[in-house]
């Protein structure tokens, strides 16, 4: 199972970026999906999360500026970011709770991470 993220880049303050992350590999389905970020010398934090039912939640710092969405037909999660600020700078990682089957016919949920995409917002 692989998660391939894309869409990062360099933008000025107030600019916009759209991130996407596609899950590939042998999976049954995907439960929750999300985006985390890690700024320089800071811990990784969850920025946005969307449940299988489509319920989204965000950290306060990005509410009203970021929108998470998903396309289950494409196994893809998106993060639309507007009004970007320098403090949004960091490596953004996508995350997915994938449902997989075992060799004995069981199922289990495994958390998977993408490789990270760098977002840099200049002041």
Q: Would you mind describing this structure in some detail?
A:
It is a single chain. It contains no helices and eleven strands. It is mostly beta strands. The strands form two sheets. Strands 2, 4, 5, 6, 9, 10 and 11 form a seven-stranded mixed β-sheet that branches. Strands 1-3-8-7 form a four-stranded antiparallel β-sheet, with no helix packed on it. Strand 4 and strand 5 form a beta hairpin. The chain is elongated. 28% of the residues are buried.
**Main pleated-sheet profile:** 7 strands, mixed
Strand content range = over 45%
Q: What would the principal axes of the Cα set say about the shape?
A: elongated
Structural category: mainly beta
Task: Detail the poorly predicted runs.
Answer: none
Termini separation (Å)?
37 Å
Radius of gyration: 15 Å
Average of pLDDT: 96
Count of helical regions: 0
Q: What's the helical proportion of residues?
A: under 10%
SSE string, helices as H and strands as E: EEEEEEEEEEE
Task: Tell me the number of strands.
Answer: 11
């Amino acid at each position: 199972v692989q998660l391939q993220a894309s869409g990062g880049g360099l933008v000025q303050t107030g600019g916009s970026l759209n991130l996407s992350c596609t899950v590939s590999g042998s999976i049954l389905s995907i439960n929750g999906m999300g985006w985390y970020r890690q700024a320089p010398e800071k811990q990784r934090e969850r920025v946005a999360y969307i449940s299988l039912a489509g319920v989204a939640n965000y950290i306060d710092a990005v509410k009203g500026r970021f929108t998470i969405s998903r396309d289950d037909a494409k196994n893809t999660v998106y993060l639309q970011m507007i009004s970007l600020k320098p403090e949004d700078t960091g490596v953004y990682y996508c995350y997915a709770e994938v449902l997989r089957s075992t060799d004995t016919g069981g199922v289990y949920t495994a958390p998977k991470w993408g490789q990270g995409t760098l977002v840099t917002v200049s002041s």
